[in-house]
Model the fold of this input.
Amino acid sequence: MQIHRYANAQQAGQAAAILIGAQLLRKPDSVLGLATGSSPVPTYQQLIRMFRGGVLNFSAAIAFNLDEYCHLPEDHPCSYHHFMREKFFRYVNFAAGHTHIPNGNAEDLTAECARYDQKIIKAGGIDLQLLGIGRNGHIGFNEPSDQFVYGCHVVKLTQSTIQANRRFFDREEDVPREAVSLGVGSIMNAKSVLLIATGSDKAEAVRKAILEDIDPCTQASILRTHPNVIFLLDEAAASQL
Ligand code: GLP
Done:
């Protein structure tokens, strides 16, 4: 486990972009695990700059996103499909059909989860997984629980996550109550993991994940057992270490 501390979120995001860029240069057909939320936004901005500058090329890469809300139309401004298109995909050159996000509107969500896991296996597994962290220590939408769930699954969002994500929606009752998320097993199967945490509201989750027991109550704590994980933190998120 490596922990890098930065003065601000911008720097932490740029460090993540450098590591993702290096991964792509070493292996242009890398399978990238991507995340939503405000934490990876500076990283996507930097990757877009590197693409525009001719440094990076995504044409052979494959992307799998971590999660998506259930029962929210893909073109809804709060859907993760919309987020990824607007924050990243439309500005770089992934080939058609190379970007994947779970379908939270599938009629049979259990079948959709199995299909998504199979797709990742078929692509050769994730080379580099980018993660944010929830205020309650969740990764993807793997919420605090008494267990770690291995595969892609449907999750009931906790009140704390609904509150945290409320800021993107007009009303609290508009925040979806369920999501499809990659499981912790699939995340742990990634060859390398980068977790970005920025801001003081992540400090407690970061402390629990890095310093306290490995416990499904803080799902990110399992990352410490990953052989190749890097935590990229700003000073505020690292303030309880
Ligand atoms: C959501 C996402 C997570 C993300 C978390 C933190 O719940 N499902 O993948 O890590 O939010 O988001 P933010 O970076 O906006 O704090």
In short: The radius of gyration is 16 Å. Strands lie at 2-6, 31-34, 62-65, 67-69, 99-100, 128-131, 153-156, 178-181, 192-197, 229-234. The chain has a mean pLDDT of 97.
